[in-house]
Structures are given as structure tokens and as C-alpha cells.
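Hi L.,

You mentioned the student needs an example of a multi-chain input paired with its predicted structure. This one should do, with 434 residues in total across all chains.
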Amino acid sequence: MSIITIERKILEKNDAVAEFNRKNFKEKKIFAINLLSSPGSGKTSILEKIIELLKDKVNIGVIEGDIQTKIDAERIEKYGIPVAQIITNGACHLDAILIRDAFSTLSDKQISLLFIENVGNLVCPATFDLGENIKIVIVSTTEGDDKPLKYPAAFQKANAMIINKVDLIPYLNSSIEILKNNALKINPNLKIFETSCTKNIGIDKLCEWLLDNINKL
Amino acid sequence: MSIITIERKILEKNDAVAEFNRKNFKEKKIFAINLLSSPGSGKTSILEKIIELLKDKVNIGVIEGDIQTKIDAERIEKYGIPVAQIITNGACHLDAILIRDAFSTLSDKQISLLFIENVGNLVCPATFDLGENIKIVIVSTTEGDDKPLKYPAAFQKANAMIINKVDLIPYLNSSIEILKNNALKINPNLKIFETSCTKNIGIDKLCEWLLDNINKL
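Structure written out for the whole complex:
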């Protein structure tokens, strides 16, 4: 019982700071996106492709969340984009307090589109509101087509799903149609994109949708 | 501070039950293996391949851990193997208490090799001792070659690593050599296997090693 109490306290504290972040982003006219996925689904690769297409059209900023290493932040920094790296030292998710603190290091930058790349974990990050405008869940074709049923929370809470690595489908016992149907069973409102970073597929449509969302702010 | 206290209590309780499980397995001459990986790395597919090769040589039992669904237990049941399904209802890892309770449902079965398929999560399950003899971490080639550096705990605690989906290497910007080197930086004692379930690669070597381990009991 004490575990539940403590967890509730953590979430209450988190939600209060998430509200602070949300107001802060709104005041600064920033559209914030929380990217969720398993390790190795291609979050950073998709970010790189989005940055290539959009960096001359919109001011992008990135907060990278990792358990260890600053590999991802170094990949993003090469594009001349403002980036803050959070190293959680073992913790399995980002929370709103970490985002508040990381964002404060970017407060002098002109940002209108902020990506928050969460820790690679399809379970725990789904529980924590960071103050973002939308959540996007990324699932790679190589993970199989049953993941939305087995890890429903991330798919329930997401506004959009990116099916990445679609170029590998010919070599897999996995179906994009079954994956889509399973995701829509969990969340009928999910907007779905299909991408491949190595073959440059679908990033343009994803970017159009992102620009539409920013323009609606 | 209170969070740490509670976590310590949870881990102390867990470790006491893990010791109970370990003694229980030892008395019954059961070799228990805790399988850790990200979602979709191929834990269940590797289990199916091992069962095909070993089921006439050794009495296998399986405990399946999933957040939702009994898809994995149903896959294993087709082989006529005793299986218990744990559905965690959102919880991100298995613990020793869940294993004690799940194993009690298998106590009338002849088992000498017990596989525990943990929840798909490369982070949280690494912290919880289940009373197993060894931990095996599975990483798929499609997850990239930097995962041991970014998620070190699972690789530090594992006795062996299986690099799965090696048949997809020609289509990836990912190197098995770099992946191995990164894993050995984290844990120089890691025994490493390379497998593909779709192309039936490396399962024989893995099974030989498992039999060696059981025979040493």
C-alpha cells in the first residue's frame, strides 16, 4: 500500500511541474513533442531526418534523455541545433522536473519546435506527463506486429505512431497491416506514419504533419 | 529520500524471496535462466527454437512475463511444454515474488531447465534478482550497436549475450563487431552467441552451451 502512496506522490509532483512546463512552452510559442519507443527503434535517426528537412523552416531544439552516454546529443549537435542531454544514471524514464531543468539551459535559444527524446523504454515513460503538446510512439517493423497489444499504455497515450524501418519488411515475418490494426484497436485516434531513415521513406509526410501542428498553435 | 527508502525495502523483500526461489530450484535440480531484452528482440522466438532442439533431451518449463496478453504463453504451449503466464498489468519488470507464485503452479511438473521470459524492457528487469542461475541478455542487430553503452546494467549483470537477427546485418548500418566490443567493454566475462531464428543460425551452439551448464549442476 505504501508503494502506491509514494507513486501517487511522485506523479502528483510530476504533474504539477508538467503544468508549469506546458504554460512555459505556450508562453514561448513552443510546440513540444515527447518521443517514446523501445531501445533502437530509431528515435535519433528519425530526429536527424526531420532536422535535415525542417531546420531551415523552423527553429528546432532537442532534449535528449539517456540512461548513460551523450552519444545521441553529439549526433544532434552536428546539425547546429540547440540540444540538452539528460543522463538519468539508471532511471528508466524522464520526468517533468528533469525537463524543466534541461529546458532552462536552452532558455536563451530561439525554439519553436522542441523534441524530447525519452529513454528507450516502451513501458515506464508512458506514465509521466512532461508538459508536451503531443506524444509520438515509434515502433520498428523488426519488433514484430504484436507490440501495441503487449505494451498498450504508450500506444493509448500517443497522438501519433511512426512505423520505422519499413524497408526491412521483405526480410521479416511481420506485417505492417497487422501492426496498424493492433495499434488502432488500442487507440482508434492514432495518426500513423510509415518511415525508413536508411531509404528516406515517409519523412516528408511526417514533416508536413508537424508543420501543420505548429501552425495551428 | 523517501523514494530510495521504499525502493530499498522492495529490493530487500525481493532478495529474500529470490533466495527462497534459488534454494527451491537447487533442491529440485532445476537450472533457471532469466531472459532480458527490449520488446521485439526475439526472446520468444529463440525460446521456440531452443525447445525444438532440446525438448527430447531435457525437461523444459517456461514462465512468461508480459504486461498484457497471453500471446507468448500460447506460442510456447503449442510445443507441449509446461508454461505459466504472468500478466503484470502495467508493471515494467518481474520480481521474485511473482516467480515464486508462478512456479508454484508448475510444481507438479518434471522440469530441469526453466526459462523465465522477462517483460520486454532493457532497463528495469536488470535490477531484480529472481533466484535464477544465470541471466541472458538478448539484443537484436536492428537495435544498433551502441545499446550496451546506453543501457549498461543488463549487460553488466548478464552471464551471456545473444545477438539475434544476424541475418538482417546486410540491410543495416550496424556492426556485430562494434556491438560485441561495446558489450565486452561493459562486461569482459560475457559469453556471446550470434543467432537468427528465421534462418536457423547459431541455435545449436547456444543449446550445446545450455546443456553443458545443466550438466555442471
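You could point out the following to them. Helices of chain B lie at 2-27, 43-54, 71-77, 96-104, 147-150, 152-157, 176-186, 203-215. The interface with chain A takes residues 2-3, 6, 10, 38-41, 66-69, 71, 90, 92, 119-124, 140, 142-144, 146-147, 149-153, 165, 167-168, 171-173, 198 of chain B (CB under 8 Å).

Best wishes,
N.
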